[in-house]
Amino acid sequence: MIRVLLVDDQPLLRSGFRALLDIEDDIEVVAEAADGREGVELARRYLPDIALIDIEMPDLDGIEATRRIAADPALAGVHVVILTNYGFDEYVFNALRAGAAGFLVKDIEPEDFLHAVRVAARGDALLAPSITRKLIDRYVTRPLTTGAVLTELTNREREAVSLVAQGLSNDEIADRMVISPLTAKTHVNRAMTKLHARDRAQLVVLAYESGLVVARGS
């Protein structure tokens, strides 16, 4: 069962999302919050698999709520998915850097929304290749970390990370690298550990910020 926490200051939107989720046999909404501060408290109380958090809220916004959840070792199993009205922008990018697993635009189609919740619950990043390109073009202008970080990765781990940054799943990475899906997952997980990435979304951000992966045309 996928346990979901809804955090949004608009009751009507929370009700709409809950109505979609509650009819699914494998998803349960365990709590709702009207602001980020309450959302963090409820995340600690209920330990959901997914926290769907609005990016713009009073008192404590979605970026700071994400940062607090990501920084709490007790909440390591909580995958934050940012909800936004505007699509990919600087606020979403900052949320990804803070530890969000991905983001969803609020006018998403219902079946795409449900699919995204399940993808995030598996630990996969909600970052399509087209979104990754926008991330690079708009917000990653030059490497922010030193080359010393990259020396921590093996050649195979570097290759796996570059494929993650292209939006490939573990199965697709395995096909590309001609290895088993388990080995692909191992390479990705080890790279996440070495780069101190909370999840695959942060791994994508770090891959570009470190210069491990370079945008086309750069």
UniProtKB/TrEMBL annotation:
Listed A to Z, the keywords are: DNA-binding, Phosphoprotein, Transcription, Transcription regulation
UniProt record, GO biological process: phosphorelay signal transduction system; regulation of DNA-templated transcription
**A Pfam family it matches:** Response_reg
Please list the coiled coil stretches: none
Q: Which residue ranges does UniProt annotate as crossing the membrane?
A: none
Entry-linked InterPro entries: CheY-like_superfamily, NreC/VraR/RcsB-like_REC, Sig_transdc_resp-reg_C-effctor, Sig_transdc_resp-reg_receiver, Tscrpt_reg_LuxR_C, WalR-like
Q: What domain of life does the UniProt record list for this protein's source?
A: Bacteria
- In Gene Ontology terms, what is one molecular function of this protein? DNA binding
Q: Any idea what this protein is called? A: DNA-binding response regulator, NarL/FixJ family, contains REC and HTH domains
Write down the species.
Answer: Prauserella marina
